[in-house]
Specification:
3 helices; 5-stranded antiparallel beta sheet; 32% strand; alpha+beta
Amino acid sequence: MSFKFVFIISALAISTLNGCSKDDEFIDSNCDGFSYQKSNAPESVNVVVERLIPKNSKVNCYESASITSQGHSADVIVIEYGEPKDCISGCFSSVLCAVLDNEGASIYTASWTSKYEMPPSLNSTCMPTNDGDGNSKTACSTPPSGYSHPITTTSDFANLLNNESSTFRHCK
């Protein structure tokens, strides 16, 4: 199985040119999933936020799905968090895709737009580099632990990620 890890580092100058500021807020129409409010979110989503999202990051949106297949059961959760970027064209933010089962929460994929939004559990395996064009990129030496979860080899999981109209497309 090949490993693909997604990352984005966005320059401050670009976000300023695109009209985003720290005061920009995601609104329901910007969310692919559901706007996040801790008191109304499913417990599984709150567990992932607490354990995997960087502290002090604003959680914007989430979506979750339960999969039971081939003797395994897990929740697949995608969370959009952090400072909104490129709000003129509809806003995007950092994204974390996680697998949650009775063993705990683990990252499947993640992309982040600032070094401050990098999931803390990846710090020891992901190091920033320069791509030669002056852009900062992050390369990870090992896949995140959720990448090898048995549920990720099922057709149900593949179908979830391949649905281009769902938030789960961000997990590819």
